[in-house]
Amino acid sequence: MNETVAIILAGAAATYLTRVGGHLVLSRIKRVPPRVEAGLNAVPAAVLTTLVAPAAVFEGPAETLTLLIAALLALRLPMLPMFFIGGAVIVALRAVMG
Amino acid sequence: MVADTQREFLKGMRSSITVVVAALPFGILFGALAVKNGMSATEAVLMSATIYAGASQMVGIDLFGKQIAPWVVVLSIFAVNFRHVLYSAVIGRHFARWSMAQQAVGFFFLVDPQFAEAEKRQAETGRIPFAWFMGMALPIYVLWIIEAWIGAQFGALIENPRALGLDFLLPIYFLGLVMGFRKRAHWLPVVLASGIVSVIAYRTIGSPWHVSIGALAGVLVGAVLGGGGKPTPDEAISIAEAQENPAP
Q1: Cβ count within 10 A of residue A97
Q2: Is B231–A37 a contact, with Cβ atoms under 8 angstroms apart?
Q3: Does B64 touch chain A (CB under 8 A)?
Q4: Is residue B179 within 8 Å of residue B46, measured between CB atoms?
Q5: Is B200 in CB contact (< 8 Å) with chain A?
Q6: CB-based burial of residue A52 (10 Å sphere; 0-12 exposed, 13-18 middle, 19+ buried)?
Q7: Which of B23, B147, B198, B238 could be disulfide-bonded to A50 (CB atoms 3.0-4.6 Å)?
Q8: Cα–Cα dist B149/B158, whole Å
Q9: End-to-end alpha carbon distance in chain A
Q10: 0.80 surpassed by pTM
Q11: Which of the four pLDDT bands, split at 50, 70 and 90, describes residue B181?
């Protein structure tokens, strides 16, 4: 088995664990300490932010501006239109700003 | 009984239509970007079929393209999917009438829109029939896999992804997901902390460490701020979030 397939299968096992684990584990624990719960609650946004922030800062002015516009759009629009407009904006801004 | 099962299955299939349509571009995009990041079409299809969680699949191929250590990739997939823990705890209570095997299968298909629809169904009729659940899950799942394959074929044809902005669609997509969490407690301080720390780490220590270090900073801020105070109404928030995410 090559490494890519191993990564995929390990990722799949980890994902299934999150889908079945909440029921098996979380529902049995009477009280999760509030700090732990708040920390866990922050996990997805914290991880995803680290994938956006360097792109927003280091890629260039067109990219920074695109993410700024996309963030504002996301306040008003659902994911799908925001995503398509964001895609159009990056193409347009790159054409204009180089 | 058989007629009842069939009717519920068809009803579930009807509930899947809007999700199938909304997920379509993301399923194809995943396949195309997976190939652009060095995966084969078979690996992209395998990923959609076994992980079946769009956001984490995108994270996976993003990190994969950057030659990052395997354990970091797997841990990041796990972290992005961590929200499912809450879905699972909430929805699991309504699976009590299902057999163990049905539950084991059902949890595999617990993607965001499936969770949102199932919670709605529970609220409307007081039960979630297994046939209905699978009637909704299977079309989304099967098409999600086919879309990865179609995307991979397209991806192989695209010679200049930069001109189409393809290389920058993932950050836009991830930003959309981050914004989708904005109703959570302490969202802004968490995002600022992981954003600032990840940028500094990216500059000083370098990739891929900005992911784990930045995320850790955000989680710590969340834990510190969330110490005392009133508990948040997790259930309502997680349903609203699930509805914002259009794809598996």
Answers
A1: 11
A2: yes
A3: yes
A4: no
A5: no
A6: buried
A7: B198
A8: 15
A9: 43
A10: yes
A11: confident
Q: Which of residues 11-50 of A touch B (CB under 8 A)?
A: 11-12, 14-27, 34-50
Q: Using a CB–CB cutoff of 8 Å, tell me whether A97 touches chain B.
A: no
B211: closest CA of chain A, how far (Å): 5
Nearest to A22 among B84, B170, B245 (CB): B84
Distance from CA of B31 to the nearest CA of A (A): 14
- Asked if residue A41 lies in contact with residue B222, where contact means CB atoms within 8 angstroms, the answer is yes
Q: How far is it, in rounded angstroms, from Cα B73 to Cα B232?
A: 30
Structure tokens, B42: 């078979």
Q: Provide the angle, in degrees to the nearest 10, between the axes of the packed helices B70-80 and A3-21.
A: 30
Residue A35 tokens, joined:
């700090």
CB B223 within 8 A of CB A32: no
Report how far residue A67's alpha carbon sits from residue A96's, in angstroms, rounded to the nearest whole number.
Answer: 16
- Structure tokens given for A53: 């922030």
- pLDDT tens digit sequence for A64-79: 999 999 999 999 998 8
Distance between CA A15 and CA B179 in Å, rounded?
A: 22
Instruction: Determine the residue of chain B that is closest to A44 in CA distance.
Output: B80
The least confident of A8-22, B42-56, B147-161 is B147-161
Q: Do A46 and B217 touch (CB under 8 A)?
A: yes
Contact state of A51 with B108 under an 8 Å Cβ cutoff: no
Model confidence pLDDT, tens digit, residues B33-61: 999 999 999 999 999 999 999 989 999 99
